[in-house]
Structure formats: C-alpha cells, structure tokens
Amino acid sequence: MDSDATTDTRPTPRPGGRSARVQRAVHDAVNALLGEIDRAQITVPAIAARAGVTPSTIYRRWGDLGELLADVAVERLRPDTPPEDTGSAQRDVLLYVTQFADEMASGPGRTVLRDVIGSTAENRSGTCCNVTRNQLELLGERAAARGEDFPGVEYLIDTVIAPIIFRILSNEPPGEARVAALVAHAFGTMPDPSRAAPALSAPSS
Amino acid sequence: MDSDATTDTRPTPRPGGRSARVQRAVHDAVNALLGEIDRAQITVPAIAARAGVTPSTIYRRWGDLGELLADVAVERLRPDTPPEDTGSAQRDVLLYVTQFADEMASGPGRTVLRDVIGSTAENRSGTCCNVTRNQLELLGERAAARGEDFPGVEYLIDTVIAPIIFRILSNEPPGEARVAALVAHAFGTMPDPSRAAPALSAPSS
C-alpha cells in the first residue's frame, strides 16, 4: 500500500513529502494563472505545464478542474492570522464578521463561494464552514478567558454567518449596519429591527 | 391594472409568442435529457436537436449551458400551488419550510441550488430568493387576514431560510427538529436551544 494515496477525506499531506510538494506547486500554478488569464480559459494541461507535473497527476488527485479550483478557493478562505483582539467579545465578533462579509461580498470572494459550493466534492463546503467555525471558537475561548458571555458558535453560524452568506449568494449583500444588527441581535443586546413585520396590509376582504 | 400580474421581475415571455414556445421547447428538452443521461454529458447541440431549434438560438438567449441549466433549475423551484392553509400562521410556515428544507436537501434539490448559485447571471439567485419571499409573503397576508401576528418576511429569510440553505450547502442539512426550532424561535414561542454556548471550557489559566 502506498501511504501517499489520497482518500480525499482531505488528509493533509505530510509537510515535507512529495504529495505536499505537488499540492503546493499545483496550487501556486493555479493562483499564478488566475492572476494572468481569464478564469474560464484556465485548463488542466496549462496548470500541469506550469506546475511541472503531468495532467494525469492532477486528474488522479483532484478529479477535475472544478474540484481543483474549489480546493484552491478553500485554501484562500483559510485565514493567515487569528482574528484581532479588541478586548470585548462582541466587538471581536463584529470586527471578524464585518471583514468576513466584506471579503465574501467582493468579486473574488463570490467566485470563491461559487467554486466551493458549485464543487461536487462531498466535504468541500463542510471544510469551508469549518474555517469560520474555528475562528468563532477561538473568539469564544478568548471571551471565556475574560469571563464574558458568548453565544453558542452554532447559533452564531445560524444567525449571523448564514444570513450574510445567503444574502451575498442572493445578490443582496448586507451593508455594515445590517451586519452590526445581526451581531447585536445574536449577543442579545438589541432586538433585530426586521423582527416585526413592516405594516403588512391586511387584504381588504 | 391586471390584478393577476405576477410581481416577478423576470420578463416572462408572452404566453403565446414564439419566444415562449422556444423557451418551453428548450426547457422540456433539458428536463427530458436530465431524465435520460448524466448531467455532465448534456450539451447545447443535444438540447437544440431535441428542442428543434438551432444551437445559436440557445447561445443567443441563454449565453451558455450553465445559464440554461440554472434557468431550468429556477423554473423547478417555482411552486405550482400556494402553501397549504393549516389555520395557524406558525403551522403554515412550519409546513412550508419543512417541505422546502426536504426538497432543497434532496439530491435534485442540491443540484438545483448549485446550478443557481454557480450561475454567473446577476439576477438568477435573486429570482430564486424571490420565489421563497413570495411564498412567505402570501403566508403573512393570510396571517394578517386572520388577525395573527407574523414575523417580518426578511426576518424569516434571515433566521429560518438562510440557515437551512447554508447548512445544506455546508453538507450539514438540518433535521426536522432543527427546522421546527428555527421556526419556533422566529415566532418567539421558544428560545433557540443553540443560543447558549455549550459549556465552553475556560482555559485553565
């Protein structure tokens, strides 16, 4: 048995191995090409040539171009640094979520979202959600260390992250005020102003 | 003013025109092919041949295959009938949303979601969101006619629809109990059990 075989439950390749080198080279090639030519014109052979591997290496490992682009997209979602520490749990979350919303609503952010969601790989968008979950958990641990209350992470995902992503995907990206309202609502510091129905006119039956 | 006019902003082709006939024939061809061969093998020329139009008619109207598949997908999302009237606003919403979640979480439902979201057309997923919005508005009007309270439709979208779709896209489709909890929470009849953080262990400092 070749221990190098990928089962695609995303075992991260050992940092020094050939597998990791191939992954790095192919990801770098995709990112370089994305900076040079239109995304629709990127092909597996072009990526392979740039990365110095054979196309069949790419097909064997990623399945197809869509999977590879989604894999690169998820990699980009992974933050380089922990969220900033503002000294307050709610401000920490607000800052993180505001940046997250900005990033996701940008042109490249939407492309990333669509690559990830459009990908057929069973666990790809799970990975994407996990990146956000890990960041929020980190903020929750920080709040606990300060003795502050913190909403459940799954609750924050449902009430803050989900509406942001849903609205972006529906081409109605939320503004800063809306993001702040979602966070404040999740922290229980204010009722969501959209909670009450805006004067639904009763039918004149 | 024709009280029957739909508020959908998509310019629906006139029912009897050539444009409508082409649209119907092409949609039917796509649906027929989807039932016969693998989706990845469907091509514009195959659709054109089946629909009795030229490929250039399809390219001119839909741009590319992805757009056409997304258009067919949105059409499928459009419900044939108004949501069932259970006599209570919360039960109406629960019934509609439970069916919606089931449908979206199914294999074909996810394909529809991905086609719509993966489509680059600016207003496609907006249309998709509008279908749901219209159904919820209808339930709100029904509640108003009964003199019942009803949460804001945008609030329901953010707190019920968004988390359902987000969890499905993240490969964590919500179960029936979770859907019921989201609806009850939106109606203010119970606190969301995931609101409180589940025993976050404070660092042992």
TrEMBL record, chains A, B:
PROSITE patterns (UniProt xref): HTH_TETR_2
Bias (Low complexity) ranges: 1-20
Keyword Transcription regulation: yes
InterPro entries, alphabetized: Homeodomain-like_sf (IPR009057), HTH_TetR (IPR001647), Tet_transcr_reg_TetR-rel_C_sf (IPR036271), TetR_C (IPR011075)
Region annotated Disordered, chain positions: 1-21
DNA-binding region boundaries: 43-62
Keyword set, alphabetical order: DNA-binding, Transcription, Transcription regulation
Domain HTH tetR-type span(s) in chain numbering: 20-80
Pfam families membership: TetR_C_11 (PF16859), TetR_N (PF00440)
One term of GO molecular function: DNA binding
Protein name, as recorded: TetR family transcriptional regulator
Organism of this sequence: Acuticoccus sediminis
Organism lineage: Bacteria, Pseudomonadati, Pseudomonadota, Alphaproteobacteria, Hyphomicrobiales
